[in-house]
Amino acid sequence: MLAIAVEQERLVWRECPTPEGPSAGEVRLRVAWTGVNRADLMQREGHYPPPPGASEILGLEVSGTVIETGTEVEHLRPGDRVCALLSGGGYAEEVIVDARQVMPLPEGFGLREAAALPEVFATAWLNLFMEGQLAPGERVLLHAGASGVGTAAIQLCRAFSHPCFVTVGSDAKLAACRELGADDGFNRHRGSFVEAVMAWGGADVILDPVGGSYLADNQRVLNSDGRLILIGLMGGRTAELDMGRMLMKRQRLIGSTLRAKSPAVKGVILDALLAHVWPRLISGELKPLIDRTWPIDEAEAAHTHVKQDANIGKVLLAVSGEG
Ligand SMILES: NC(=O)c1ccc[n+]([C@@H]2O[C@H](COP(=O)([O-])OP(=O)(O)OC[C@H]3O[C@@H](n4cnc5c(N)ncnc54)[C@H](OP(=O)(O)O)[C@@H]3O)[C@@H](O)[C@H]2O)c1
């Protein structure tokens, strides 16, 4: 099959070994579209190796068609149009995935839009509701509000009546976040977000992909009993923690990664999406925000766009490009 290989730091669409399988609980998909995630940029640079047993090929999510099922898979059939959360292997014509990580398309959705759903909605759901344990009316601070994850998280906050405040890198991104349902926001290039978030009312949960450079300010704006959910390290991996503030305000710091979770746990997260998010996608209350798409053999251009922080929402790659 054809797949993306990293050759001398370049992304090259070329012949690669077709993955073996499916084993009993897996399915083989013919890939239509795959999503670009920030993690793909880190993986190609050698900073984010795939978990043991996962494909070395980039790509954490796809949409496509089931072409083969393992002997124990009962709920999927060849010909089914689906989307899937992967631990790797999406930038390819075919991928093998555990059937628990496969979801039907929301009614009325095509394969293109469906490829923009798994990674960002699973990440946002996992961290806001499962790790963050949002209680009714609690307030959320979302950093990188216009990222793929951010645009899903804003919409989930709005749908479940949690006021949310975003930080972003431009005024155009701020306007896009407001349009999606953010209450208020702050352009991070204008200095510290502390004053603006405190004036807004502070945060009970912070979804933070930045890490080191934001830790002190995150602690300042996190309310008593607040949860700081760390999902990325774009601003560095070390910083000083104010344990006095942490203790007195009963703050909790939670590290969270979706990719390394087992298929069983991923299945639980995706079941929650099917129950709570899919109906809202079907009704139009939630929607994937697609920034731009490229053909898979132009993956390099798509990565450059994401690396330049130019996207608002998801960037997709067309593999077969079926709609
Ligand atoms: N732990 C997990 O399970 C998990 C799962 C999925 C994603 N993630 C993480 O979540 C984040 C978003 O992922 P994505 O694929 O949705 O990202 P994305 O669409 O590529 O967006 C990332 C955005 O982050 C902002 N940013 C970049 N460097 C920054 C810095 N140093 N400080 C503050 N903001 C910065 C930029 O937006 P502005 O111009 O607005 O600043 C950039 O466009 C990534 O860090 C990713 O690794 C974690």
Automatic annotation (TrEMBL):
Residues 7-317 form the Enoyl reductase (ER) domain. GO terms for molecular function: NADPH binding; oxidoreductase activity, acting on NAD(P)H. It holds the Pfam family ADH_zinc_N. CDD domains: p53_inducible_oxidoreductase. InterPro entries: ADH-like_C, ADH-like_N, ER, GroES-like_sf, NAD(P)-bd_dom_sf, Quinone_OxRdtase_PIG3. Keywords: NADP, Oxidoreductase. NCBIfam families: quinone_pig3 (TIGR02824). This is NAD(P)H-quinone oxidoreductase.
